[in-house]
Design a protein that fits this description.
Length: 356
């Protein structure tokens, strides 16, 4: 607000409007922040009403990653041996099907919905899923917990110093060359200009091998009972890759009585194709974490089976021999500890017919 004050400085004060020097003891118009004006210039003009500064908008809450959906609703097929089978080419395809709310019958859908609610997989999770819900599982696929990678490293230690290089590059001596590594004395004395011998390395074609693991677990089994089984298979695949093999990795879910219409079912999930690069971190969650098996395999794969889903989602079984023969190296679901996994690795090194 403009006020009328006397000039108290003996040197006077200049008017902010016209620049006139107002002497000591004369009156001036004054306003805080706008200085002094002489009496002729009059009081300061009123300032226009300034709009209030807008309050900063609150930062929007972080949206959870959307759950994948699938427009199709696939079903398994019954093979000649009576086993219902289905195969996924990638982990992403399996997750899409597992997250789709469907089943082959209305009663089966109701049972699966009750199972999801019972284990709170859309909420906080449950001990059965190792306290993972669906959203947490999706986040952990790309950023797996450290203990999974530590388990793979432990299993790899059993192999590093034992496994030898699987292929030895061949060297072929080419004679009668214009240049090379050694002189052929007979050709040289005969004044043959093509008197050199040269060693040339012939690269052998990489061999393709498959490493498989049966992920199936019963309801009472603990996370550690799957941890080292998957870690051992993944460590073996990693070492074989570093030794020059093209390695494919496949996980299986072998179950009996998942529904009232299915006696045995086998679902194959390709974790890594042979031509793909090896990424231990991205594969470790699917191979070694029981939450992935129970949310994606136990619940999700039951959606593929005809009939009404069993309340216990079936019983874990060993993989049929016909499916095991697809693999060069295979770890069964009876491997349930670190010691058993280490023993399995030793057997693969010493007793497998595959050439290392």
């Amino acid at each position: 607000m403009t006020k009328k004050n006397r000039v108290h400085l003996r040197t006077g004060i200049k008017c902010r409007q016209c620049g006139t020097l107002v002497p000591y003891q004369e009156y001036v118009w004054w306003e805080k922040g706008r200085g002094n004006r002489c009496m002729e210039c009059g009081p300061h003009t009123p300032l226009p009403d300034m709009p209030e500064e807008p309050k900063p908008k609150p930062r929007p809450a972080k949206k959870p990653r959307p759950l994948p959906t699938s427009s199709d609703k696939p079903a398994s097929r019954k093979d000649s041996d009576g086993v219902y089978r289905y195969e996924f080419d990638s982990v992403g395809d399996a997750i899409k099907v597992a997250m789709t709310d469907y089943a082959q019958t209305p009663q089966g859908l109701k049972t699966l919905q009750e199972t999801c609610k019972r284990y709170d997989i859309d909420g906080k999770g449950d001990e059965w899923t190792n306290y993972y819900n669906r959203q947490m599982m999706l986040d952990a696929m790309g950023n797996p917990p450290k203990h999974l990678l530590v388990a793979v490293d432990k299993m790899r230690e059993h192999l590093i110093d034992t496994v030898t290089t699987p292929t030895v590059p061949r060297r072929k001596v080419r004679r009668g060359q214009e240049f090379g590594d050694e002189i052929d004395v007979d050709r040289f004395t005969a004044k043959d200009p093509y008197c050199w011998d040269r060693n040339e390395r012939e690269l052998q074609e990489k061999r393709v091998v498959w490493v498989g693991v049966n992920l199936s677990c019963n309801a009472s089994q603990r996370p550690k009972e799957l941890l080292y089984r998957g870690a051992a298979a993944l460590a073996l695949a990693d070492v074989l890759t570093n030794r020059g093999f093209n390695v494919g990795i496949a996980a299986f879910d072998s179950t009996s009585r998942p529904t009232n219409a299915v006696d045995n079912s086998v679902v194959k999930l390709v974790i890594k194709k042979p031509e793909m690069p090896m990424d231990v971190a991205s594969a470790s969650f699917a191979m070694a974490e029981i939450a992935f098996f129970r949310i994606v395999c136990a619940i999700g794969f039951t959606r593929l089976m005809p009939g009404d889903a069993s309340r216990n989602l079936g019983i874990a079984e060993m993989l049929p021999e016909a499916d095991q023969k697809q693999m060069d190296f295979f770890v069964e679901n009876n491997v349930r500890s670190e010691e058993a996994a280490a023993e399995w690795l030793k057997n693969q090194i010493g007793g497998n017919d595959n050439e290392w």
